[in-house]
Amino acid sequence: MCDTNGTVRDTLESLAAGEIGVSEAESRISGYATAAAGRFDADRERRRGIPEAVLAEGKLPAETAALAATALETTGRALVTRAGPEDAAAVREAVAEAAPTASVDHDERTRTIVVHAEGFEPPALDATVTVVTAGTVDAPVAGEAAVVAREIGADVDRVDDVGVANIDRVLDRIDRIRAADVVVVAAGREGALPTVVAGLVAAPVIAIPVASGYGEGGAGEAALYGALQSCTVLTTVNVDAGFVAGAQAGLIAGAIDGARGSDRNRSEEGLNHSDPDRTRSGPDRTRSDGK
Q1: Over the range 233-254, which residues count as b (16 or more CB within 10 Å of their CB) and which as e?
Q2: For a 10 Å CB count at each end of the chain, is N or C smaller?
Q3: How many Cβ atoms sit within 10 Å of the Cβ of residue 84?
Q4: pLDDT number for residue 30
Q5: 145 strand-pairing partners
Q6: What is the dihedral of CA 270, 273, 275, 279, to 10 degrees?
Q7: How far is CA 290 from the centre of its chain?
Q8: Contact in structure between 177 and 206 (CB atoms under 8 Å)
Q9: Helix, strand, coil content of the chain in percent (nearest 5)
């Protein structure tokens, strides 16, 4: 039972009054909503900290659009990955009919679609995910990771085209990369860049091997094996798995945000419950160096 917005009776009364639709009622009661193309996991963000995404690849545009509309109704937003122009057109049509005031953002390079209902407030985390690419060819996969991390709530910075063919390109951006809380590095060919970056920063590094290259190993195998065998500490996802890398980076960012929030709360509690003696007059009570 996943009725996080009130009792089952409240949900049924809202449905009977026409305040919510069938899909939202189902999602409140069971945690998922049934669409023509399948069951949408509306409870995933609450349960896992990651919004459910609709993978357009392998689906008809109409199926993708139906699931996106269900996502919008039940969660206030929709995230679609691996979407082509036909998918985008179908989603726009479905959203225009179901929620005309919602925004629809289709990025052709990253093949993502992000839909937000009017008034939707995305989460905001006090943590930065920096997404790094070796070359322009890595941008689609890296961009997918960036979109996912941003939808989870992280601030996202992009550092592009810093491949190891000229190591100076990454070295002159290294201070910016070091400022990140989490780093995602996308690289094809031999996949050396994640190892190089992981050896230069203190933040967690997630490698995305990209299927770009020539001949043997050029479909991402060489980059994958290189990342798996890295002598620096990093985490590796599968070839072209931008969604997974972005989601993992977002989860780490969420944990960092939580820790920072706890630190702030402790600091505020310390100020509110400070030792009364510290407020008394006298030279030994007012020195900030504790001497």
Answers
A1: ebbbbebbbbbbbbbbbbbbbb
A2: C
A3: 15
A4: 52
A5: none
A6: 100
A7: 44
A8: no
A9: 45, 15, 40
Output the pTM of the full model.
0.81
Q: What is the mean pLDDT of each run of 10 residues along the chain (291 residues)?
A: 57 64 58 71 84 95 94 93 97 95 97 96 95 96 98 97 94 97 96 96 97 91 95 96 98 95 71 53 39 36
Contact assessment for residue 129 and residue 181, using Cβ atoms and an 8 Å cutoff: yes
Which DSSP helix (H) or strand (E) runs through 34?
A: strand 33-35
Enumerate domains of the chain plus CATH numbers: 8-116 (no CATH), 128-249 (3.40.50.1970)
Phi, psi of 95 (to 5 degrees): -70, -40
What is the Cα Rg of the chain in Å?
Answer: 23
Strands, sheet with 112-116, edge to edge from the N-terminal-most edge strand: 54-55, 77-81, 112-116, 103-107
DSSP state at residue 58? T
